[in-house]
Write a structure and sequence with these properties.
With 982 residues, this protein is an alpha/beta fold. It is built from 41 helices and 22 strands. A hairpin with a 6-residue loop joins β8 and β9. The longest helix is centred in the first third of the chain and has 30 residues. Its main location: plastid.
Length: 982
Amino acid sequence: MATSAVSGVNSISCTTSISSISTFNNFRSKNPNLLLGRRSFLLYNWRRRSFYVSNVASDQKQKMKDSSSDEGFTLDVFQPDSTSVLSSIKYHAEFTPSFSPEKFELPKAYYATAESVRDMLIINWNATYDLNEKINAKQAYYLSMEFLQGRALLNAIGNLGLTGPYADALTKIGYSLEDVARQEPDAALGNGGLGRLASCFLDSMATLNYPAWGYGLRYRYGLFKQLITMDGQEEVAENWLEMGNPWEIVRNDISYPVKFYGKVIEGADGRKEWVGGEDITAVAYDVPIPGYKTKTTINLRLWSTKLAAEAFDLRAFNDGDHAKAYEAQKKAEKICYILYPGDDSLEGKTLRLKQQYTLCSASLQDIIARFERRSGNTVNWDQFPEKVAVQMNDTHPTLCIPEILRVLMDVKGLSWKQAWEITQRTVAYTNHTVLPEALEKWSLTLLRELLPRHVEIIAMIDEELLHTIVAEYGTEDLDLLQEKLNQMRILENVEIPSSVLELLIKFEEGKEQAEEPKVEETQEVEQQEGGKDDTKDEETEALKAETTAEEEETEVKKVEAEDPQAKIARIFGSDPNRQQVVRMANLCVVGGHAVNGVAEIHSEIVKKEVFNEFYELWPEKFQNKTNGVTPRRWLSFCNPELSDIITKWTGSDDWLVNTEKLAELRKFADNEELQSEWRKAKRSNKMKIVSLIKEKTGYVVSPDAMFDVQIKRIHEYKRQLLNIFGIVYRYKKMKEMSPEERKEKFVPRVCVFGGKAFATYVQAKRIVKFITDVGATVNHDPEIGDLLKVVFVPDYNVSVAEVLIPGSELSQHISTAGMEASGTSNMKFAMNGCLLIGTLDGANVEIREEVGEDNFFLFGAQAHEIAGLRKERAEGKFIPDPRFEEVKAFVRTGVFGPYNYEELIGSLEGNEGYGRADYFLVGKDFPDYIECQDKVDEAYRDQKKWTKMSILNTAGSSKFSSDRTIHQYARDIWQIEPVELP
């Protein structure tokens, strides 16, 4: 089949090329003022509908616009069909070769198909860019260290409404669209929910026609490719760019210098300048993001780092010192090698900071350059926030704040006051976590060495904040003031600036003078008390005589402590035994005009706990923006069978852009015909999971079992350990029963795990190892058979999720209450008719409200109880459930292999100490969890009831579209309006 496909491509492409050249020459002769390249004409001839012509020389482009209407030059053509699509694919197979010409196998078919789709996107992409430039619309810029895109081909074709023509075209050359799409590697630009959320947001921004861009880094190797071996998780470099990326376009004309180290000097005009140090270059790579059924195609700009050619040490190379010659180049390039390099070492910390600053510096330079270009000859910097909105996705892009200030003050010459006001009106911050380790703190010493000017600016922001706090809380109660400063300062354990110190000392001196009694008043009091004898009585003299030298010294210290300066130094001084750090989250809150959590419960925790002092000071800054997911990728494209059913029963496919329509399914939830169709679709998707598991792990599982899935980043707070302990308990009970008793008691289950543990997170990697060991034992136990299977799917990513989520029947979202900011996989599962078991944490709270309490399996302690339960544990009052102790003892017998799990189990024991005392309350919630799982079994036995619950979960997902979330961001934070192409 491949051979015939090759000959077909070569012969048909040649004929098409000759015909196209003849037609093109005829077209150009009739349009002498229009400079079109041959490829551009082929795009025109293929696309066959109206579009802006953008890929022409700039002078000709201007002539074209001048001679046309205000809307730009347009061509009236037709919607592409399978014939024109096939022609385009064959054209790229011949004229845009990424592979040798002898073969036309699946990888080559994928690249040719992707490039043909990209041609269509470029037309809309350029038109979107041109329109936004022309009307100078206010634009939002979304900065994120992660964009977990997933495969782009099916998403792009689906958004363009061309799934049918592409499927038909590929069938004609012997391939299926699905097989071609599977050739695409997942872009290794993210890790978990943070990056996937960013990608859903881009999809919604384009679909809703908002003028917006994403900014990130182009990681060469991403996080890592996960292998599961006998030793558990192993990491190898991700090779997603090995064969190139057909979706990206390098913009060699768009690059910016990024500086590290050096020193700060002050010019004669008082302006600061950052000089010397290490210079690299950030180069733009652009990726088109198409909207659904709209011409709007927005941009994801990714930065790659390199060294300018002139900086290469050619002399050292010619002298044979190749390592020295390459040193600077390697330093520059490695910034974009790995997502989240290990930061246990100073070198790792330095590299992470370099990554974060590269993202901020290159992006802000680009944003500012675009603002200046759009402004024309007169740039009014006060209008910058009226045209630019910068959203920081978590604390990674925090350096945006001092970077904007640096550029405005040092490069553009604005005053501190003006630059600070502009910055605060421009920047906003999304908080994604309450975990202390994720609220980044960076060593002041490291920051000062790497970014000396930025540390000066951060100190200015901190000083401004201190004056605000002093003005708010006064100086009457110095202990209260100290408490507020300790919680709110950006610079932790750093001496307070002289302007604030002088203010406090001056107040304290004035306070003491006011309190010191006047001489006349003292004499009057003494007279009223009968007066004082100038001659000390013998008793007083005796007491003084007994005063030792040590007591006198103590008295001197006491007096010194009451000296205003000494007193202020004692209360507000730094501790030389503690590290000086910069609190990036505090800087985000202070430097931006809006702070939002990502679920209702999370936003309340942000206000009441994480940033309570800031909330009391600036309540107007704090908002909630519950996360959402795109229904296109996460329902329509990954679950087409269920999507067709939804469209049939709701009457249209309007739910794809208005998920409120999903609620209409509620009135059909008891309909037997719908339930039958629903179960058939679920069964079909379960069969895909069966194939995936066989391909990835070698295990064979039964589609008749309940598919119970937990797929997310491996972390102790997400409590995969609670899940696997529940499975171990289930397995132990099965082993204690007869075959008849097992079948009576337990519903067959396939328990699926997926997710990556960070390479240096030892405890998380122990959890992965434990899950795989349990699976190896259970899955080979002939007594258990298909009644229980435990599978860890390696290298979890978006493409794996797109298979697992549609076929899942129970999904586990069991984090310790109050610790998950939102979660978005819970929304994806519910949207696909999967029932959830979980705690009242993150978006679980709102999902349960929407789908109905009876359709959600709830267990566990609630967020307001957690602190008390940890205190109870610390005081030694917690008594573990016997069933929990039973599981631990069972694991310690070695039933799951020779690996020593003492450290893992030990983390759940004791009352205090690092890595112990069951900080995430696995033992506390365990009995409630296994009892809730019994309720799951009971519900699953009644398939009619279960199917109804499944339908109601999809119906209740109407609130959780990223379209809805983006509308809220646009209205409440960015204040931007849609701009739709004609």
